[in-house]
Amino acid sequence: MAPNRDNRRRDRSRSDRRNRNGASGKTQQDDRAKQRCSSSSSPAKAVPAPAETKPAKKTIVETATVRFEKRPFGMAPAKEEKGYMVEKVAEGKPAAEAGVDVGWRVLKVSGQDCSQKSSAEIQALLKEVSLPVEVQFQKPEEEALPSSEEDENNIQNVRADHRRQHEAALSNIDDLPVHRDPEELPEPIASWRDACERKLLNASLVHKLHAAGLKRPTLIQRHAVPIVGHQEHYDLVAQAQTGSGKTFAFVIPTIARLLLRGCPARPFFAGPTAQGCPVVLVLSPTRELAIQTCSEMEVMTKGSKLTQMSIYGGETIKESAKRLETAPIDIICATPGRLIALLDETKISLAYVQTVILDEADQMLEQRLEIMCADILVGRDMPAPSSGRQTLLFSATIPQKIKDMCPQILREKRTAHLTIGFYDDDKGGSCDSITQLLRWSPDEKDRIGELIRDLQTYWDRKKGRVVIFSNLRLTADSLAHQLKREGMTCRHLHGKLDQEVRENVFDGFRRGDFDILVATNVASRGLDFPDVSLVVQFNLPDNIDVYTHRVGRTGRIGQVGHALAYLGPKDKKIAAKLVEFLELNKQNVPDYLRDMAIKAETLKHRY
């Protein structure tokens, strides 16, 4: 459930828990905290909590019935003796359209129970049954996680504790090189007090920053706050290393300006005809990042009259629209696809937008999102840049494709460029506090054994947790199962999971409910996971930008982190860029990687 969705339901649930638990609530929370501490510090398996303090787990079984009019059905089974487990699903076929995904099992065929049949028997039945046929599928139970009883405030408290504990790590990024263009940009702030004296912040906002654990600004925040908050409203293209505090670099000055100068009056009539008219629009490439950004906005607006909401796919258009009908919204954090859908339904107007922010701008302007972003930024009823609209682009990488698009969406004479860290053209950059290691692993079948051994070598539960990236959903699922068998607390995550399940997994990992998160690229960009000491890339991506963002899940805000990647013959495409990236960040480059890069470049020029 999104942080801003159905607040009344969350309020009722909190009230119910208070009435139900009374004075015992604090004791139960303390018990849960002790359990998490003991499991995170012990090198062996975690000792199970006493039965009376462990909340009852709820098993959620989800099924889907699909009607097939013709063969082939567009799916293939996994190679196993018992039952029919889906291994492949063809796009555009009935099963895929009904939400059936890899790992689902066939329960019934034309009403016949298949739970005890072998894979061969079910395949034969599917071939012989008369058409049309209805097939019932069941979703794997491990993906149907129980809803968490912890609320959003607990998650924010975890982040605040995390920031307070690691404030000293800021020194690791304070000395990074800074490039500013033009040179006459406003001087960076020295502290939050300095920002107050320059009337960029107010005392109330500084108090909230301290409460959130942000005692002093990071390097990018010191430079971005005066640029974004300047009375002449600079546009900004900001490039900073992963984990450097980019989100708050635009959240803080944007909220401060609204609090200091107020929101413009906009029309609003509650009810079915209501239309949301935001003043600030934040575009994010993924649902999780939109939710997280909205949550950070809420930290800064708490106690004020400012309102915000997140909009994303995963809920119906009707659900999104209904949340716009009760009160005017000042700030919207959205994914492009869902925003366009609501614009088409006339449930949102962009006519009053004063500031638009592209978070993780490189991914926003790539592939299919490029068309959507162009539609939003230069089409619809969005004010043109010439009207004074402020546009902010933040990302770890700013490739040439984005630079080419900037003239269409930015004001040429009022645009600032800010680069923090070690960058060279479009190669990207990463905090030098991250040690990057490569392992030659030509046979992917042997990697799980290597992974388990490497976890024993490079991972210390006392120092943090682990994020493991794979390129395929099926691989993520398999890795999670095998790591659990080794006694490790683990969950898997990919884009095909239900939105509520994804949010529960994200929130559980932030709280420390489990030690290892196995994920596809859904977790690689922008998301802030506290205390991640090790990132493992079980499969390398084809794109160096994806590699950069994966690595950036550790070493947040200058902390020390390790990034381990497995390399094989299939990774020729990324070899040359990876050599450049490692050299740029003063990391060791193995000879086999250099050889692979040379061979790949030779073949590319030959053909």
Automatic annotation (TrEMBL):
Stretches for region Disordered: 1-58
Domain (Helicase C-terminal) ranges: 454-597
Keywords, comma-separated and alphabetical: ATP-binding, Helicase, Hydrolase, Nucleotide-binding
Domain of life, per lineage: Eukaryota
Signal sequence annotation: none
Chain ranges of the Helicase ATP-binding domain: 227-416
Keyword ATP-binding: yes
EC number: 3.6.4.13
Annotated SUPFAM superfamilies: P-loop containing nucleoside triphosphate hydrolases, PDZ domain-like
Parts of the chain that traverse the membrane: none
GO molecular function: ATP binding; hydrolase activity; nucleic acid binding; RNA helicase activity
The keyword ATP-binding belongs to this UniProt entry's keyword annotation: yes
Pfam family, one: DEAD
Stretches with biased composition (Low complexity): 38-51
Domain PDZ intervals: 62-141
Biased composition (Basic and acidic residues): 1-19
Family matches, as Gene3D superfamilies: 2.30.42.10, P-loop containing nucleotide triphosphate hydrolases
PANTHER family the record matches: ATP-DEPENDENT RNA HELICASE DBP3
Protein name stated in the entry: RNA helicase
Lineage: Eukaryota, Sar, Alveolata, Dinophyceae, Suessiales
